[in-house]
User: Fold Exonuclease domain-containing protein from Panagrolaimus davidi.
Amino acid sequence: MEVGDLQLVNKFQVLNIADTVEAENKITNSSYQKFSPDSEKLYDEYSNISTLKKMKEFCAKNHIVAPRNLTFSALKYHVYKLYASQFTAIQKGRQMKRAEIKDEKYQPPFDYYIVIDLECTCWADNTKKMQEIIEFPAVLIDAKNKVIVDTFQEYVKPRIHPELSEFCINFTGISQETVDNAKSLHKVIVLFRKWLIKNELKDPRKYLIVTDGREDIPHFLNLGLLINNLPFPHELRCFADIKVLFRKWHNGSSKFLDMMDFYGLKFEGRHHCGLDDAKNIARLVMKMCSRRNKIVPTNKMIPAHFSDEGFKQV
Assistant:
């Protein structure tokens, strides 16, 4: 093999020449790939060519043998197919890098998101008994930096059905002893408000409550407050249901694990542990934020028993 041929082979090895189909199969969304300066320079030179004469000069310079009598568009496409592996990946990488820059400039509509996922009493026969809150967790997300900054978790003692079913214990992982020693819903909400104040979130305009579904706030919390003859806290009146937002943005199932799979996430922790569920919902919310989707209110409660009185003293 002559020196000129060897140089040509080496150039093709550096550029990792492949057909378009193979190149597409190798491109992933995982991260921005870096290429050699020669590859980037070659792509830039190719991209800036706008005449047939320049395209022929590019082919001669890079030892590309092309069919004769091709139009400018056909010749440029022929060259692109030769370098498809590198060119397609470079294009994808630059698009992702631009998207990351745009995300850095994106200002979310709220400073913080607070994910709540309540756990309640339940029974194996799915009877229509009144379900009461037994775990009240919350996860605080810094919306701009997309990080979890704090968590809250308290167990709640049920009033109407104080004894947990075997099904409920196995389903939630919460023991009878845990709820026997737990606080009342009144005291837990007071502690939740103190947690908000500790995190400098006294103003509800700074944050948005986020849930996976409509049951937590309008049903479970609302019912629990009525059972305990408590007013509805103004901090929890407005919330975003990620199922509603997901269906608005995408086609497909809005079941929680399906939504996680859509965004390439795997569940971490124990299913139906309220705090673990809330942490995973928070991961999903942060992933949605990174795609520049606006997490905004989808529901607003206007309960008859709305007031902020009654929670000032434990």
